[in-house]
# Entry
Amino acid sequence: MTRPGGIAGGDGGKRCGTKGGGGVDDASAVDGDGGTAAERLRRWRLVLGAAAGDACGEPSGADARMDGALAALYDRGDGGGPRRGGLGASAPAVARWLGDIRSFFPAEVVRVLQADAVERLRLERLLLEPELMEAVEPDVRLVGTLVELSRVLPEQTRESARAVVRRVVADVERRLAGRTRSVVRGALDRSARTRRPRRAADVDWDRTLRRNLRHYLPERGTVVPETLVGYGRRSRGVRRDVVLAVDQSGSMASSVVYAGVFGSVLASMPALRTSLVVFDTSVVDLTGRLADPVEVLFGTRLGGGTDVARAVAYCQGLITRPRDSVFVLVSDLHDGGVRDDALRRIAAMTAAGVRVVVLLALSDDGAPSYDRSGAAALAALGVPAFACTPDRFPELMAAALEGRSLTAWTEGERSAR
# Structure
């Protein structure tokens, strides 16, 4: 298997830091890209592995250690046979390997290597060892793995795993919580309207002009505003209900992590009444845990089937003020339940005034795999289904809370890319 292309190329090659040891003899010839021919051979050798030894030379020093760390994960025998390398079943060996890759590569590459190790070498079994918790580079995908393993973690490992999860959650909150509160608070203020604004600063001039276009005087070139539309005064009570339903099947691990964090952030806002449920073939209400997103995540059970209809039915029962409610369904729509029942209930929600948002993924993992026929059926109901990155989720919630067209919002997002 070819190694990840970013391990030795461009700026990444400099960050990988051989710290005094390239394995190929120095050469003064400079290629067209401004680097030496020897450096190009060195990089190709690290990317291609032992198979390129005859053409690119053998590494030495720090490059040899870097190559060994990569060989343990990626090098296989001819014909796809057994690996020549491997991490074995030794926790100390894995801990050393994790330490090596952290010293050789930048954090973003380390996360890719860790994810590949989980997939190819069944590293999750060795994460049961508490000493490994200190060696891993924490990220959202690793959190998904730890949450999935939480039911089988030994007691001494569970606390270490919680510490890793808490570090990642704290990082996500640091990036997104403040902006989420600010954007959502602004949306709530804009969504409250009054026909008697007290100050000029409280007038929503855009809506006022739209409301009074029929009073345009062409001879004067002006609009006579018979009706003013202004922003309402801030209320201290609950102004909107938000219900999050999150698919906890194994493919949705990253989305579960981000949804748990966002659910906790929204629950901290007094103007919102936030509920969070997770579901597979059953439904678990985690609203009572929203004060601590780590408790939310460890309350999930990743893996299993999916019954969207059952989750929608449960959430429908939570909604008591349809016109003041936003329902967010996070699911790839690969559904083992009765789809027609789910569609019927979603149609009833929208007809009652609920703002329904369907996210195929809430993550940075790229284009998701999803059930296209399910997404098309929702689109026919006027409910677009799309993926959303965590960075854009606050703006999405603002659009939903303000009652703006989500179809127009998604089109605007696509055109901005």
User: Anything to note?
Assistant: The domain at 237-416 is CATH 3.40.50.410 (Rossmann fold). The CA atoms of residues 26 and 162 lie 47 Å apart. The longest strand covers residues 240-247.
